[in-house]
Design goal:
heterodimer; A: mainly beta; four-stranded antiparallel sheet; B: 114 residues; mainly beta; seven-stranded mixed sheet
Chain lengths: 115, 114
């Protein structure tokens, strides 16, 4: 069965510091991979997605993620965090093939930013 | 382009009462999803529609939850009767097609069952 693991429940970084949020997935074939961000009281906003091709994916707000098939990982990175990046981040996996498009989400990582 | 609209934004009810949530997807999006997000968890799919047909409702508690998308546009999710464990945020999302497409999420309806 498909699953997504985000090992870090809560991360605190200083403003201007670099950030890496971890995501590991379990899936039998090449998945579609997504990172979403959720601010308090808001819906989910897509940061970036990987379907195929270049394994380093650029997203909005200066985020990037790298797909590593050998490690079943899709970690999210940002070189310099801004206070406005404080939010909850969700990694999700979707299936290639078949007729279903539903996403399986991880439990999320809450990011706090220290001034 | 207007995003996914949901109403109400907040709802408080007592257990055993009924409640309904409404979602209007992005214009032209054939696929509509309802997710349940319990506090501290990621969203979990309840049901997905392709136009007005159900594609997957395997995780929908059908004894109390129902959903419809009669004209292939907006959708309603109902809970009757509600239980305490139904307290959650109910998110609606839409996409152009099914697999692999980006899903665009609405702001959600926060439900508290007392």
């Amino acid at each position: 069965a498909q699953s997504v693991t985000q090992p870090d429940i809560h991360i605190t970084v200083s403003e201007g510091a670099s950030l890496e949020l971890r995501c590991n997935y379990s899936y039998g074939a090449t998945p579609y991979l997504f990172w979403y961000v959720q601010s308090p009281g808001q819906g989910l906003q897509l940061l970036l997605k990987y379907f195929s091709g270049d394994t380093l994916v650029q997203g909005i707000k200066g985020f990037e993620a790298e797909f590593k098939r050998s490690q079943s990982s899709f970690n999210l990175r940002k070189p310099s965090v801004h206070w406005s990046d404080a939010a909850e981040y969700f990694c999700a996996v979707g299936a290639h093939g078949g007729s279903q498009g539903n996403l399986i989400f991880g439990k999320g990582t809450k990011l706090s930013v220290k001034p | 382009e207007a995003g996914v609209a949901q109403s109400p934004r907040y709802k408080i009810i007592e257990k055993r009462q009924s409640v309904a949530f409404w979602c209007n997807p992005i214009s032209g999006h054939a696929t509509l999803y309802w997710y349940q997000q319990i506090l501290g968890q990621g969203p979990k799919l309840l049901i997905q529609f392709q136009n007005n047909g159900v594609v997957d409702d395997s995780q929908l508690p059908k004894d109390r939850f129902s959903a419809e998308r009669l004209k292939g546009v907006d959708s309603t999710l109902k809970i009757q009767p509600a239980k305490l464990e139904d307290s959650a945020v109910y998110l609606c999302a839409s996409s152009l097609r099914l697999q692999g497409e980006t899903q665009y999420f609405g702001p959600g309806t926060r439900l508290l069952v007392l």
